[in-house]
């Protein structure tokens, strides 16, 4: 994944820094306690810039990604889509294992290693989640979570180009996970083709799996941007709290 993955974090960081220069939200006056409390809870001082990026992302999604995801769902049977998803998860097991170890979750690391071995062999490269059938469940771990367990603050909320809701810590974590992926350091035309194919299939897979819930948010939410921000912050806080308690899921 060398060429693509080495440039993407730098591009995103550059865009985020550019966003800082474009505009920040003005904090409410101290006399308005409720508004000030909401401002602090949202942790979104770059809201004007974030909303612009959200609108651009939404336009690209409506024109390109959502139609592709709907076409993928219509053309590919459920069982095949699920198999593709399992293969993608299996490919990403090495960074997951690295984060388990960095977080000190040895039981989780053992499960991840066992899943990688079983699904790569018996599961035909991850096409079938044999490990899940055998009772070895998958859990989440990433470098953003690792940084949180190491004591790093999240920093302000960010809406990243193409990637969507995040924060400074998780944006750095995204780059860290790329660095933990062994395929990042492989080169040559075949690996470059693999990198672009993996990136494209992952994007379509992720978008298809969220077709219904994102459509519902756009349909029912008065402010979809604020809803996505809130859901991201709540879900991330829950994941990190569980990781701190030694619970993986």
Would you write up a description of this structure?
This protein has 249 residues and is mainly α. It has one domain. It is built from twelve helices and two strands. The chain has helices at 2-22, 33-42, 47-75, 78-91, 93-102, 106-121, 130-133, 143-149, 168-180, 189-209, 211-220, 224-244, and strands at 157-160, 164-167. Strands 1-2 form a two-stranded antiparallel sheet. Helix 5 (93-102) runs antiparallel to helix 6 (106-121). The longest helix has 29 residues, at 47-75. The protein is globular.
Q: Output the strand order for the largest sheet.
A: 1-2
Supply the number of structural domains: 1
Describe the global form.
globular
Which value, in Å, is the CA radius of gyration?
A: 19 Å
N- and C-termini, Cα separation: 27 Å
User: What count of helical segments does DSSP give?
Assistant: 12
């Amino acid at each position: 994944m060398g060429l693509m993955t080495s440039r993407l974090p730098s591009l995103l960081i550059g865009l985020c820094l550019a966003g800082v220069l474009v505009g920040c939200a003005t904090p409410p006056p101290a006399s308005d306690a409720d508004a000030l409390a909401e401002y602090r809870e949202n942790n979104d001082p770059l809201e004007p810039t974030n909303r612009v990026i959200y609108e651009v992302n939404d336009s690209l999604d409506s024109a390109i990604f959502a139609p592709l995801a709907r076409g993928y769902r219509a053309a590919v049977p459920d069982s095949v889509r699920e198999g593709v998803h399992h293969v993608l998860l299996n490919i990403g097991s090495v960074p997951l294992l690295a984060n388990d170890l960095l977080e000190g979750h040895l039981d989780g690391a053992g499960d991840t290693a066992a899943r990688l071995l079983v699904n790569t062999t018996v599961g035909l490269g991850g096409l079938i989640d044999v490990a899940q059938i055998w009772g070895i469940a998958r859990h989440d771990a990433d470098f953003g979570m690792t940084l949180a367990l190491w004591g790093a603050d999240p920093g302000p909320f960010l809406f990243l180009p193409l990637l969507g809701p995040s924060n400074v810590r998780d944006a750095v974590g995204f780059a860290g996970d790329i660095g933990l992926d062994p395929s990042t350091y492989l080169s040559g035309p075949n690996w470059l083709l693999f990198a672009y194919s993996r990136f494209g299939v992952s994007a379509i897979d992720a978008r298809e799996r969220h077709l219904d819930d994102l459509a519902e948010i756009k349909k029912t939410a008065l402010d979809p941007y604020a809803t996505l921000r809130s859901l991201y912050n709540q879900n991330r806080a829950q994941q990190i709290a569980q990781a701190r308690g030694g619970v993986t899921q």
